[in-house]
Design goal:
209 residues, mainly alpha, 8 helices, globular
Length: 209
């Protein structure tokens, strides 16, 4: 009983920490972004400029790209054998946290807006796509010396950074924001809906036991 109660308390504390992290994330990322944009003698409106698409078109393109990425990433993570460590790591974290629907929606919106404003809006114009993607990966706590699932996740985030960077350059920052948010939302919703203990036993090896 005490052990179970302790696990519940830890889970609740962890969720509160994650929730506050994503509440504070825009508070940190947005001011830093604005300072960097100002430093480069640009305006916020110039960062959102798109030469050939309206904001509605950017939003639609971003949502479409994000959901397609979510589908592709979900299939790869669940089915490819060489991603077993990555799958187990993500699954274990997700199951232990037991996030609510609000957590998933807020996390996706927060990450999509604040992270893209910082990395693709403020940093990428100065450092380029590849270096920004590396910084994006490291900023998620995944340095180059990480091993196992963390290293694979670092590569995964790095590749996504390149994709978001390319999308931002081709379609505009708003598109990258919607793509990022839609990707997160699609993947998180899929985990929330489909990953029950019996399914975990089939796809996640030791995690489901």
């Amino acid at each position: 009983m005490n052990s179970s109660g302790s696990q519940i308390d830890i889970s609740r504390i962890t969720i509160r920490i994650v929730r506050w992290f994503y509440i504070l994330s825009p508070v940190v990322c947005v001011p830093i972004s604005l300072l960097l944009i100002k430093f480069y003698s640009k305006t916020l409106s110039s960062v959102f400029e798109s030469s050939s698409f309206s904001k509605i078109q950017e939003a639609l393109w971003g949502t479409t790209i994000g959901l397609l990425l979510a589908f592709g990433c979900g299939i790869c993570i669940l089915k490819l054998r060489y991603l077993n460590k990555l799958r187990s790591m993500i699954t274990e974290v997700f199951v232990n946290l037991k996030p609510k629907w609000f957590d998933l929606v807020f996390t996706s919106i927060s990450a999509g807006f604040s992270e893209e404003l910082l990395f693709r809006g403020a940093i990428q114009p100065a450092l380029g796509i590849w270096i920004t993607a590396f910084v994006f990966s490291v900023a998620h706590g995944l340095g180059p010396r990480s091993r196992g699932g963390l290293l694979l996740f670092g590569v995964f985030i790095f590749v996504l950074g390149i994709v978001f960077g390319t999308v931002s350059n081709k379609f505009g920052l708003t598109t990258a924001m919607f793509a990022h948010g839609s990707l997160d939302l699609g993947v998180l919703f899929a985990y929330k809906i489909f990953l029950s203990p019996p399914i975990l036993k089939n796809i996640s090896g030791p995690i489901g036991k």
